[in-house]
Amino acid sequence: MKKILAMPLLASTMILSACGGGSSSSGDRIEALQVNEYAGVWYLAEADNYLKITDDGNGRIYRCSLYDGYRADERVSLQVSGDIVTLSHDGGDEGEVKLMRNGEQLSLIAGIEEINYQQQAAMPDACNGNAVEITYVSPTEAVLGVEQTFVVNFDYRVADISAELAIAFTSDDGERTIINSDETILVDDRDIASGSITVNHTRRYQGDDAYSLYVLMYPAGSDEEFPILASDEQVINIVR
Q: From which residue to which does the signal peptide run (predicted)?
């Protein structure tokens, strides 16, 4: 089975415990200074995304889209407090990552993992990087224990290498698992193009009322492990 590597951007697996802080006014002033230290626009070249942190510590990830330049990922939010950033996905806490600034470099550190963003004056208005956007999914509901055929249409753009597109679903452990790995599309279009993949899938896990279907783009010819170049997500509701 192919293993999807965490995209180098604030991965939810990067979790640290925050140190407790005092409640004195001097502590509040120190925290405010640290938040301001990290405020700005930061760029991660290998993932082609931007991290924007405001003076009050709110953060957003901006990803290259097909039609709207760099667009905020509304599913992911960040809150900076001191040198700790709390990550949330779809409103649920994902974990905490330590921040460290060295001049124009901002590092996010969790254990032995480190992601390095570079400071930028601003985000560009347009982008032409890897991108994929779901345009149609049917059905958008799943019946537990029943095999169903999912038809997924999408638009995409590949930036500079050949890539493959495949369908994945959230598995029982919360990871993304590719379904029917032979049901992929090999692409090298530099302009925007359209594709469609049909897969059969049976949902068996009963722990949630919804889960996610993904269109994943990854380098062509990938073996057991590979990075995600771009992705899009559609929530599938479970019918009981």
A: 1-18
Instruction: Specify the DSSP class assigned to residue 150.
Output: E
* pTM, 2 dp: 0.74
Q: Which secondary structure element, helix H or strand E, spans residue 35, and what is its range?
A: helix 25-38
User: Quick count: other Cβ atoms within 10 Å of Cβ 103?
Assistant: 7
Q: How are beta strands 131-138 and 113-120 bridged, if at all? A: unpaired
Quote the DSSP letter at residue 56: T
Rounded Cα distance, 34 and 93, in Å: 22
Checking if the pLDDT of 220 tops 70, the result is yes
Indicate whether 176 and 100 sit together in one domain.
no
Residues 162 and 218 in one domain: yes
41-80 per-position pLDDT tens digit: 999 998 899 999 999 999 999 999 999 999 999 888 899 9
CATH number, domain at 179? 2.60.40.3880
Is residue 125 assigned to a domain? no
Nearest by Cα to 118 from 54, 46, 12? 46
Enumerate the H helices of 10-162 as residue ranges.
25-38
What's the domain range around 215? 131-239
Look at the block and give the residue holding tokens 């405010």. 32
Give the residue from 64, 95, 120 where a domain finishes: 120
- CA-to-CA distance for 237 and 234, rounded, in angstroms? 10
Which of 86, 101, 120 is the last residue in one of the domains? Answer: 120
Closest alpha carbon to 42 in 61, 64, 69, 65: 61
